[in-house]
Design brief:
8 helices, 20% strand, alpha+beta, 241 residues
Length: 241
Amino acid sequence: MILTCYYCTKELPSNQMKRCSRCLLVTYCSKECQTISWKASHKQNCKIHPSLVSPDDPNKAVSKAERPEKFTPEWIELEIDRALSRWMQLWRSCFQMYAWMCLDLANHPRERVMTHCMQLIVQPRNFEDDPAKQYFIVEASVVSIADVQARHPTLEVTIDPTDYTRMRFVVIMQNHLGEARRLRLVQWNDIGLEKKRQMDKADSASLGGDSPDSPWVQTLISAVDSMSPSEVEKMFGKKRS
Ligand SMILES: [Zn+2]
Ligand SMILES: [Zn+2]
């Protein structure tokens, strides 16, 4: 599997990359890139991965020695978290593109990015080796952020009411009984959003929309089902070597 350095965007096989040991979400080609990135911005965005939070102090990660032993129930829970993080990392830039598309920014007030987000309900696929295929999307929709917070009070969402460049999407992982097991929020800055707000209104409406029959919903679900992340990125004209 090829991963991209979070800082310099160099691409390398996953076994040559270094992963941030706190959030487990970002990878670097070198120690240098990791150090620069940490000082530049990652320090502010790096949250301890949910599976590594110390039971005694929510601001601390457990040490290697304190991690659960293999194949115990705690370890299985941790593996679920990691598989979900890995899956989200692989699809992240695809989901980001769908997230702005679905909000139909040209036909809504600028506050749209603060009040609404894309929500994906996902379920694990058992006995699947490809990390990009370990989850499938059951449901994709546009939801109000206030609703998400009301239903999941443990989810921390900090919204700066003056920041019109920040977008979000939520991933809820459920088991086969439909019970929510994990909840993740992705936030990122997109300086290109103003351009998307000025898109042709009809084009914007045809790409996005709140209805479950909106074309983006089926496109997204089937893309994640049958394509690889880089194929989807290519479809959107994003270059990847
Ligand atoms: Zn790098
Ligand atoms: Zn980190």
